[in-house]
Amino acid sequence: MNKERKLIIAGNWKMNKTVAEALDLVRGLKLELTNVKEVDLVICPPFTALSEVSKAVLDSNLRLGAQNMSEHNFGAYTGEIAAGMLKEFSVRYVILGHSERRQYQKESDELISKKAQAAHGASLKPIVCVGETLTEREGGQTEKVLEMQVRGSLAGVTKDQMTETVVAYEPVWAIGTGKTATTAQAQEAHAFIRGLLVKMYDETVARRVRIQYGGSVKPANARELMSQPDVDGALVGGASLEARSFGDIVKNSI
Ligand code: PGA
Questions:
Q1: Percent of the chain with pLDDT strictly greater than 70
Q2: N or C: which terminus of the chain has fewer CB atoms within 10 Å of its end residue's CB?
Q3: pLDDT recorded at residue 226
């Protein structure tokens, strides 16, 4: 597939996999994906598996991401993890503002923007998630919600930092539900987000930013989604927990 931007496909393992299970999955992924160079491949295990997984991926094309981090660099923040601590395990990416964190941990756009700035401060590339709920979509609020989230979550991110930022469009109603946005719905939202980036930054920056689609991405729908001009990869939950399905999503996207 000939794309303007290099695809980036990331597996968000969420709260799954013990260290032993994580290492098992990495072994499988290395077999499935050895020769893939066309796509940036990222896996995001839980914090507890980062240390061992970081060693296991050293000799591979798999890059490491975390699922969250603190907006602070250090200090009395019980239970939190700072960007610098992630760097110790060669983590390069960090998912920020996932809808599950927006929902269960009540993360706001303002907090997410502080985290994004802290990530860039430590040279971690944030994957900033945005997306509307079903009620918002049905109420015709999709663009309004996306605009608020994109502007709010990326506030304070400079032009240079923005080109190193990944945006993930994840309609909340498509996450873990088996319902995928149609390719037209995905493309429309992605084009809208890129248009916003033109307004917030400029054409050059907007053309460079990779926008992933997330929400029930499977081997069967990956090719069609990735064929859309503004879809530059995928953030995969459930289907990233098995080497075969994640491998097939990647292969079908190339
Ligand atoms: P899903 O999750 O692929 O299981 O729908 C996507 C995500 O939450 O990133």
A1: 99
A2: N
A3: 97
CA–centroid distance, 174 to ligand 1, in Å, is 8
Is 136 marked active-site? no
186-190 long-range contacts (CB < 8 A, ≥24 apart) are: 186/213, 186/225, 186/228, 186/231, 187/228, 187/229, 187/230, 187/231, 189/142, 189/146, 190/228, 190/230, 190/231
Strand partners, 40: 8
Ligand 1 pocket test, pick from 216, 225, 241 with the greatest ligand atom count within 8 Å of Cβ, gives: 216
Residues having CB within 6 Å of any atom of ligand 1: 12, 170, 175-176, 214-217, 235-239
- Between CA 5 and CA 192 the distance in angstroms is 17
State pLDDT tens for residues 158-168.
999 999 999 99
Q: Which atom of ligand 1 is nearest to the CA of 14?
A: 8
72 is catalytic: no
